Every structure is written in structure tokens, then in C-alpha cells.
Amino acid sequence: MKTTLLKSEDYTRSPWKNGGGIFTDIADAHRTDAAVKDWESLLWRFASTPIVAPGPFSHMPGIDRLQMVIGGRGLVLKAPGEEFDEREPFTTVRFTGEMEIVTELQAGPVEVVNLMARRGAAEIKLVALKEPGDQPLVTGTHLVYAVSGDCSIRLNSEEFVIPRGSTLKVELSGMSRLTFVSGLAVLGSIRLVG
Q1: What are phi and psi for residue 149, nearest 5 degrees?
Q2: Among residues 85, 89, 74, 87, which one has the least CA distance to residue 148?
Q3: Residue 8 main-chain phi, psi, to 5 deg
Q4: For residue 166, how far is the Cα from the chain centroid?
Q5: Tell me: the pLDDT tens digits for 77-107?
Q6: Residue 21 is part of which domain span?
Q7: Any idea what the Cα angle at residue 106 is, between residues 105 and 111, rounded to 5°?
Q8: Is residue 59 one of the residues assigned to a domain?
Q9: Cβ atoms 74, 51 nearer than 8 A
Q10: What is the pTM of this model?
Q11: Could you say which of 90, 119, 148 is where a domain stops?
Q12: Is pLDDT at 60 greater than 80 in this prediction?
């Protein structure tokens, strides 16, 4: 097990693929053979972003996406013949990057976290950690993002306190167990395949 604390002041910023806003990039991975780290070489990305006005989502062919509102409320994603309801915070929705999605804000701006992965390259999961309890962790990369205040967790028998806005990156070569002790966090899990 390898753990790395990613501090909020070290996160980078990058534009949305369609230029309509700015991501706060928390962690990502790209193909090792790629000359440039861009959308084409992306394997996965974990990021947060504000949505302050209704508008279209970026077109991302070949990308699977998970999204969760972590600040504000009232977000609905509208696609032809389909709707993704994120009116309540900490609800995970899953959709593909090919979908033509337009946002609807029913109660003002929101802050969301996104976990994206190249289809066929990684399996992803995004869950809210709100109550004390255990989460099994499989081989792969896990990101515990402290949303509001400091967050306390235990990995096997080791204790960690994650400062507000920071993320504990956990890289596992085998099964493990995360015990959520206190705070409010989002857990993003990535398992590379193939």
C-alpha cells in the first residue's frame, strides 16, 4: 500500500474540454507512451468544478463519467430522452461522454466532483462517505477527498487525518479495508483493466 496526501494548494487548474469553465484537477493518469498529456492520452481524471450557469457539457467520445454534487443543490442533467437527477447532494450519476447533456440549475450554482475514465481502460466508482463504517477496497487507486472539514479514516490499522479540501491517494496491489471515522468525504476508486 502506498499513500500520498494531495494538498489543495497543489491542485492544478485546466479548462473544460469545451472551454465553458475550469476544472480543479485533483489527480489523473495518462498513457505512459503519450508524448503529451491531453484528452486523447487520458486514462482517468478526478476533478472538481463549479457549475454557475446552465450550459452544454463537453463532448468526450470514449469517456465514461461519474458525477456528484458536493456543494449547493438542484442540478439536473438533461439529455435527449433522458434526465440525470442530482437535485440532492452526494447522489452519484453515471453517463457517457458522447451524450449531449445540458445542465439545469434549479437553486443556483453548484460544485461537483467528476471521475472520468477512458472506456475499456479503467473501471470507476464514486461514493459519498458520510457515516462511520467500512468500505472494502480492491486493487487499484483510491482517492479520499475531504469535502467539508477534516476527515478521519483508518486503512487496515493505520490512522489518517485528511485536511479539508485535500485528498489521500491510496494505491493498492491487493484487497484492503477503509474505515471511515468522521467528517464528510468522497471516495473515488479506479481499477485499470486490460
Answers
A1: 75, 175
A2: 89
A3: -60, -35
A4: 13
A5: 999 999 999 999 999 999 999 999 999 999 9
A6: 11-119
A7: 50
A8: yes
A9: no
A10: 0.94
A11: 119
A12: yes
